[in-house]
């Protein structure tokens, strides 16, 4: 039996085991397999590991998307999370080239994927509070929001959760240095049913000068006590 003789359900199952590039390459072989590639049911889960992947045409965005993960683990990605004054010219150039890559993609997701259930972002140093706010507004079924080392995320995202995260059950803001203890306490008070995790966030040195000064003063007092 030739693969094209299989029904749509079987073909979708086979395609589900392939990565995005393999799906795209197989879709180029005939119209039947192209139809499978274009079936929204194939794209309920998307994982990305590089900013370049977001710009490819080897996947589809649509209402069927339920789970999205964008996790950058390379050494170059980490430079986006370094304070601007610490970056060299190469690092600044790299960050500038990818300034809006993830944010623009997520805004597209918020407009086209209203049934999103879970979002995981790791190392996405340019994602802003406004971007997460739009997602919470446009994806009312979102149950899990995991943000790790997303340095531009602040208490404004936590406030957006209290206002628009009615379905949210899991919230991680690990290593988000501009999230404060006050913001975390507000989430615990306003959203007691949400499983909150914020490893290191409120204990890291923030970017804003008033918060940074306060953190340094606290650290100094601890050293004196020791």
Automatic annotation (TrEMBL):
**GO cellular component terms given for this protein:** cytoplasm
Q: Which InterPro entries match?
A: F-box-like_dom_sf, F-box_dom, F-box_LRR-repeat, Leu-rich_rpt_Cys-con_subtyp, LRR_dom_sf
Q: Which SMART domains match?
A: LRR_CC
Record key words, sorted: Ubl conjugation pathway
Q: Which superkingdom, per the lineage?
A: Eukaryota
One Pfam family cited in the UniProt record for this chain: F-box-like
Q: Which Gene3D superfamilies match?
A: Ribonuclease Inhibitor
User: Is Oxidoreductase one of the keywords?
Assistant: no
Domain F-box: residue ranges: 9-46
**Listed name of the protein:** FXL22 protein
Look up and give the organism this protein is from: Dicaeum eximium
List the lineage, top down.
Eukaryota, Metazoa, Chordata, Craniata, Vertebrata
Task: Identify the gene encoding this protein.
Answer: Fbxl22
């Amino acid at each position: 039996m030739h693969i094209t003789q299989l029904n749509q359900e079987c073909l979708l199952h086979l395609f589900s085991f392939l990565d995005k590039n393999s799906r795209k390459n197989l879709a180029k072989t005939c119209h039947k397999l192209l139809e499978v590639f274009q079936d929204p049911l194939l794209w309920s889960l998307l994982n990305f590991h590089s900013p370049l992947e977001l710009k490819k045409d080897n996947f589809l965005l649509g209402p069927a998307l339920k789970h999205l993960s964008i996790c950058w683990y390379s050494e170059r990605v980490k430079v986006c999370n370094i304070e601007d004054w610490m970056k060299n010219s190469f690092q600044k150039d790299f960050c500038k080239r990818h300034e809006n890559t993830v944010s623009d993609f997520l805004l597209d997701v918020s407009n086209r994927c209203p049934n999103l259930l879970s979002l995981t972002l790791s190392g996405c140093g340019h994602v802003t509070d406004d971007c997460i706010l739009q997602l919470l507004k446009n994806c009312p079924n979102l149950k899990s929001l995991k943000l790790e080392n997303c340095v531009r995320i602040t208490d404004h995202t936590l406030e957006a959760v209290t206002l628009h995260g009615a379905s949210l059950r899991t919230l991680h803001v690990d290593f988000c240095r501009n999230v404060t203890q006050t913001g975390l306490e507000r989430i615990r008070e306003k959203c007691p049913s949400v499983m909150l995790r914020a490893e290191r966030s409120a204990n890291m040195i923030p970017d804003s000068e008033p918060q940074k000064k306060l953190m340094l003063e606290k650290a100094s007092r601890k050293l004196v006590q020791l």
